[in-house]
Amino acid sequence: MFLLGFILGLAVGIGFWIWQQFQLNRYLERVLQPYSKSTDLALPLLPRVRQEIKTLQQQRQDLQKSLQTYQDLLDFAPMGYLQVDEENQLLWCNQQAKEILYLQRWQPGQVRLLLELVRSYELDRLVEQTRDRQKPQTKEWLFHPSSDNPAELPTIKSMTLRASGLPLPNGQVGVFLENRQPLLDVNQERDRSFSDLAHELRTPLTSIRLVAETLQHRLEPPLNRWVDRLMQEVDRLISLVQGWLELTQIEANPKMQLHLEPVEVRSLIVSVWETLEPLAQRQHLSLSYSGPEDIWIKADQARIYQVFLNLLDNSIKYSSPSTNIQVEAKITFFEDHHQDNSIHPTLELNLIDSGTGFSEADLPHIFERFYRGDKARTHSSLADNSIGSIVGNGLGLAIVRQILLAHGGSIKAMNHPQTGGAWMQVILPEVVANSQSQDYS
């Protein structure tokens, strides 16, 4: 009886063990099903499990090596990089970011909000915008570093930073940081050097012109033609020096250079055209104006006159003979979100010629100083150009852009689809009066 009970218990135990093995095999089959294509199905189950575990361990090691490689590259990169989680807590940053943002005391593993470590609301706002919009965002601002050590404060200088945010999975955001201050310092030093040189050149150039004027009245033909050429080149150099000084002054302090007063736009354009009409008549060019009459803007009349003088002079230079230069004016309205969503009128002026236009490669650089662009639009002005006309020096459009920016306006260069010539679109925001809409041509 005892033996029968033992055998029965043994049978139940063996059956239970077999059932457990069967259940374990079914579970392992389900777990290993995604990897069945990359394994040998003929292998026994436990060796397969060991092989898969070994494969996963190798993959983990490879991923860790790749992650370490990328971190080493970012740490060695000349650009700062930091990464925050979904709660804006700093996860990691490279050495450049530590130096730019004064994060030398922060160590990986510390749970701190980025705003606590870096007192920059612009950087925090960039991170939020990148996460909300799920698109790369870029921002440039003046960063004022802070330090817990009062002794370091006198040695800490503000710097211009440019940051680019990149959305990452799980709400994380990566930010690339670039310290723009060294480049800006170099540009400022270059501008100061050029301005100093321009100031030094004005006196000798004026002296040379006085000598040339004296010789011009004393020499007889054909020798005097050489003096005439000398006068033209000296005037070109004087115009270049004066243009550079004017441009640097406007860039340094644009608002202080403006004497704002009501200016009637159409009368101003007509006055500019009358000044340039002797040049236009040589190529049989005409001017047509279309748009509202009696448009008044609040502007510096001398500066705005200079804008249209430069633009129309360029149109005359590069227009084909016996063509028309068009000036189209219209009033548009925009909603100012910074002042109670009020509606403000804006003047849009389109200057269109029928010349050669701009090449696509030149368009992004039209308003850069000393940029001359395609030879088709950079030939000198007429061979018999008078002394009073504008001599091209590569600064005219740069000055135009700075004057318009100082007025809160803008300018855009395009090619007109119908005439094929240059199309300058000028925007001026300070419209103070507008009556009697009428077309003129």
UniProtKB/TrEMBL annotation:
It comes from Anabaenopsis circularis NIES-21. Residues 46-73 form a coiled coil. PANTHER family: PHOSPHATE REGULON SENSOR PROTEIN PHOR (PTHR45453:SF1). Its EC number is 2.7.13.3. GO terms for molecular function: phosphoprotein phosphatase activity; phosphorelay sensor kinase activity. CDD domains: HATPase, HisKA. SMART domains: HATPase_c (SM00387), HisKA (SM00388). Transmembrane segments: none annotated. This is histidine kinase. SUPFAM superfamilies: ATPase domain of HSP90 chaperone/DNA topoisomerase II/histidine kinase, Homodimeric domain of signal transducing histidine kinase, PYP-like sensor domain (PAS domain). It is an enzyme of class 2 (transferase). It comes from the Bacteria. The lineage of its organism: Bacteria, Bacillati, Cyanobacteriota, Cyanophyceae, Nostocales. Residues 196-432 form the Histidine kinase domain. Keywords: Coiled coil, Kinase, Phosphoprotein, Transferase, Two-component regulatory system. InterPro entries: BphY/WalK/GraS-like, HATPase_C_sf, HATPase_dom, His_kinase_dom, HisK_dim/P_dom, HisK_dim/P_sf, PAS-like_dom_sf, Sig_transdc_His_kin-like_C. One of its GO terms (biological process) is cellular response to phosphate starvation. GO terms for cellular component: plasma membrane. It catalyses: ATP + protein L-histidine = ADP + protein N-phospho-L-histidine.
